[in-house]
Amino acid sequence: MKKKLIIVFLFLLPLLSSSQNILTLQDCYTMAAKNYPIAKQTTLLDQKSKFETESISKGKLPKIDLNAQATYQSDVIGFPLSMPNLTPINKDQYRATLDINQLIYNGGIIDANSKLKESQIKTQQQQIEITLYQLKSRINQYYFAVLLLQEKKSLLISKNELLLSKVKEVKSGVKFGAILPASELILEAETLKIKQQLTEIKFENEKMIKNLSELTFSNIDLQTTFVQPQISATTSNNIRPELEFFELQNEQLEFSKNSIAKSVLPRINAFGQAGYGNPGLNMLDNTFQPFYVVGLKANWNVFDWGKNKTDQKVIQIAKEIVLSERETFELNTKMQLQEMQSEINKTIELLKTDEEVIEVREKIVKSANAQMKNGVITTSEYLTELTNLFEAKSFLKTHEVQLAAAKSNFELIKGN
């Protein structure tokens, strides 16, 4: 039983290892969103928002100050008439106080500033989402380039295998004098040409995979198989992160407007002062005395020379700027979608023709192969028809990849 399990494991091992070298387009998106350096800022901004909001909220807590001073005055209050039991006021004075100020009412400016700060952080985080989303188009560029090279490589290998089998047939024909010796050299020259093309693809593939690895901050193996995505039109309610960014900008401006409005409301504070000094509150007593003062203080800037109204106008202009930026973005997006849809429609039509061309080319190659064997045409003529067939197949694969890329880009532009 144990031996059977080992045999099964050894049989599945190649399959398991190969499955680990499969990469999808979504895998690349996920790796970029996770590993790209700027993605770390989202968590950092959360922490920053927490500390900033906490700092602003502490404005509601009492403010406590400890003060001490010693002074010497050139003159003090004097009395023209001498009075019994009254000593002159000392020119040197000493005082130590504990001052407490407690905010009672400020029109809600602290809460308004807290909400404004939270809104600013959300806007910054959404800017990060935009940057990460825009990476997807660059990922598409490299991913589909590798996918196209992968398809071309597969076709070249298939063509090379077919040519090698033809070389064997031609060698046999040359041996028996049915085919000219030059025919074998022609086929061998073509296999060498394919070898060169495969070398070009190898280095181009390495370059593209390296670029994709750097973009996703991952180590993509050169032997990885890229899977062509099956993309269908979606009707989801996803929106572009840029549109949400504009919404957050408007929200931030509303919070700014609210904060400005509350900044001119009256403020009321309770205060208290306890101290020890010479003199105390009684200036005529030249001894160290404890003292205290408690009370309320109100402050209201009733005239600010129109500053508040001017700031409100600035906010309104900023909102109009955001609106114009959104309209421009929506217009450009609409045009991009139209262009990409036209590209999709064109490629679909080309694919229909590609299949028809391949069907005809396969018949021609089959006929040319029979003619070559019978000496009716030369090997060069047969090779021309074979090249035409694989060129048609290459066009088909190219258009398939282009269609998948166009659909993927269409969904990205739409926001899915």
From TrEMBL:
GO molecular function terms listed in the Swiss-Prot or TrEMBL record: efflux transmembrane transporter activity; porin activity
Protein name: Outer membrane protein TolC
Cellular component GO terms, alphabetical: cell outer membrane; efflux pump complex
Location in or out of the cell: Cell outer membrane
Keywords (A to Z) from UniProt: Cell outer membrane, Membrane, Signal, Transmembrane, Transmembrane beta strand, Transport
Signal peptide start and end residues: 1-19
Top-level lineage group: Bacteria
Stated family: Belongs to the outer membrane factor (OMF) (TC 1.B.17) family.
